[in-house]
Design brief:
The strands form 3 sheets. Strands 3, 4, 5, 6, 7, 14 and 15 form a 7-stranded mixed sheet that branches. Strands 10-9-8-11-12-13 form a 6-stranded parallel sheet, sandwiched between helices. The protein has a two-stranded antiparallel ribbon with strand order 1-2. The relative contact order is 0.16. It is built from 10 helices and 15 strands. It starts with a strand and ends with a strand. Strand 1 and strand 2 form a beta hairpin. The longest helix is centred in the middle third of the chain and has 23 residues. By secondary structure, the protein is an alpha/beta fold. The radius of gyration is 20 Å and the shape is globular. It has 2 domains: 143 residues, Alpha-Beta Complex (Quinone Oxidoreductase, Chain A, domain 1); 140 residues, 3-Layer(aba) Sandwich (Rossmann fold), CATH 3.40.50.720. Helix 1 packs across helix 10, helix 2 packs across helix 3 and helix 2 packs across helix 8. Bound molecules: NADPH dihydro-nicotinamide-adenine-dinucleotide phosphate. It holds the Pfam family ADH_N.
Length: 326
């Protein structure tokens, strides 16, 4: 038997609970992992609360992230005892995920645990940190560097936002944090933000072109915020579009693109090829230090997942939630 969060949907409605399952119930896969840590992401919150149709079939174990040790393997690439890491690939949406003590997976979805990091540190980073790193790499690929100008990060207190600030600051950028929680100034400054602005400045409809304020952005919120971020990006700048915490809409115009030559770089972490994942995790392992990870993360047990999701969906969680599944 093993413990897991299970989401069910039937005549009795949509519900999530901590449950005991038998190993024989695990889905097909060529590798079985003893999960050590998972994490809570916005998408896990949507799945567990049922707020958005993230889960494709039921019953489902949520958890888009996991790190642990291989205990059974039919894969030539992974052997019993190997430490592994997984982010995305529809795990926790289409395939049973990481919020459980055991997971059976397709070995193609795994990457070896980065050498400098523990399973717990990897889950402190999780999909949020890995997505933030992909966003920063996208800015770099479009020629952005610290000498070119400031970078704005929206959704600053969230998982992706917190990591984007920490990574960018460590790389020497002047970071502007946009947040609805300006009372978190100390935290955001400790992460490395040089300026903090109220997200209300950006969240209402704006003009097609506005004063040029930053050369790049990591946007976690979409909607009018993303439109205004683009409209305020300096000539030749790049905006990495990561999330939709405000809205899935993009009510913008072509003006910033055809008059200022800015680039909107889409960031997807879920289906990202293996080589990009290895590259991003290697960068994360060298850029982030333990003190920043401690500052950004809090650890909970499986029994606390459901109540913590309620807080997550109300925007009350700062940084990252690690889940110790054992
Ligand atoms: P979190 O819930 O941790 O953070 C989201 C943050 O967005 C909040 O902390 C808040 O920051 C801000 N926010 C919330 N509601 C609003 C609103 N109505 N208007 C403006 N800002 C708002 O989520 P994550 O950091 O894990 O994820 C952020 C986004 O990125 C999500 O939409 C998620 O789905 C997406 N994502 C995308 C990935 C990809 O592959 N592209 C991978 C991972 C996440 P503050 O309090 O500072 O204002």
């Amino acid at each position: 038997m093993f413990n897991a969060i299970l989401i069910e949907k039937d005549d009795k409605g949509y519900r999530s609970a901590l449950t005991q399952l038998e190993q024989s119930q695990l889905p097909e896969g060529d590798v079985t992992v003893q999960v050590e840590y998972s994490s809570l992401n916005y998408k896990d919150g949507l799945a567990i609360s049922g707020k958005s149709p993230v889960v494709r079939h039921f019953p489902m174990i949520p958890g888009i992230d996991l790190a642990g040790t291989v205990i059974e393997s039919q894969s030539a690439q992974y052997h019993v005892g190997d430490k592994v890491l997984l982010n995305g690939w529809g795990v926790g949406e289409k395939h049973w995920g990481g919020l459980a003590q055991l997971a059976r997976l397709n070995s193609q979805w795994l990457i070896p645990l980065p050498q400098q990091l523990t399973t717990k540190e990897c889950m402190a980073i999780g999909t949020a940190g890995y997505t933030a790193m992909l966003a920063v790499i996208a800015l770099e690929k479009h020629g952005i560097s610290p000498d070119k100008g400031k970078i704005i990060v929206t959704g600053a207190n969230g998982g992706v936002g917190s990591f984007a600030i920490a990574i960018l600051a460590q790389l020497g950028y002047h970071v502007i944090a946009s947040t609805g929680r300006t009372d978190q100034t100390v935290y955001l400054t400790q992460l490395g933000a040089s300026e903090i602005i109220d997200r209300n400045e950006l969240s209402q409809p704006g003009k097609p072109l506005m004063k040029e304020r930053w050369i790049g952005a990591v946007d976690c919120v979409g909607g009018h915020t993303l439109a205004n971020v683009c409209a305020s990006t300096q000539y030749g700048g790049t905006v990495a579009c990561c999330g939709l915490a405000q809205s899935i809409d993009f009510p913008s115009s072509v003006a910033p693109f055809i008059l200022r030559g800015i680039t909107l770089a889409g960031i997807d972490s879920v289906m990202r090829p293996y080589a990009d994942r290895i590259d991003a995790w290697e960068r994360l392992a060298t850029i982030l230090d333990e003190s920043k990870l401690d500052l950004m993360s809090k650890t909970i047990s499986l029994t606390e997942v459901i109540t913590t999701v309620t807080q997550l969906m109300q925007g009350q969680i700062r940084g990252r939630i690690i889940v110790d599944v054992n």
